[in-house]
């Protein structure tokens, strides 16, 4: 059976992989169309992905406690989702 930490690692890895794919295609779309909303979308997903990577590094390598790790990760995610919302609602080309 899988331990809880193994499941957490799998979810974090999935976030990183799916985030990287989303950032890649968002960036590619921006370069093709020059649509600023795609740029903000890609940057927003970059922050969400960076949050997952930072959380993993802080917890697994630097041995920070889980509350501190989740606080840092949540900060990146809030910024990322704010940019994603801006890309959907606020960008005027």
Q: Could you explain the architecture of this structure?
A:
The chain is built from three helices and no strands. The chain has helices spanning 4-33, 36-61, 66-89. It is elongated, with a radius of gyration of 15 Å. It has one domain (19-89). With 93 residues, the chain is mainly α. The chain starts with a helix and ends with a helix.
Fold blueprint:
Elements: H1 4-33, H2 36-61, H3 66-89
Helix pairs in contact: 1-2, 2-3
Question: What structural keywords apply?
Answer:
86% helix, single chain, 3 helices, elongated, mainly alpha, 93 residues
Short description:
The protein has 93 residues and is mostly helical. The chain is built from three helices and no strands. Helices cover 86% and strands 0% of the residues.
Radius of gyration: 15 Å
Helix vs. strand class? mainly alpha
Estimate the helix proportion, in percent: over 70%
Q: How many domains?
A: 1
**Ends: how far apart?**
51 Å
């Amino acid at each position: 059976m899988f331990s809880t930490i193994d499941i957490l690692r799998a979810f974090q890895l999935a976030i990183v992989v799916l985030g990287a794919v989303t950032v890649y295609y968002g960036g590619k779309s921006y370069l093709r169309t020059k649509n600023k909303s795609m740029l903000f979308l890609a940057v927003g997903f970059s922050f969400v992905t960076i949050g997952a990577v930072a959380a993993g590094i802080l917890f697994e390598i630097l041995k920070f406690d889980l509350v501190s790790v989740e606080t840092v990760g949540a900060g990146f995610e809030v910024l990322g989702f704010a940019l994603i919302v801006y890309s959907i609602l606020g960008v005027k080309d």
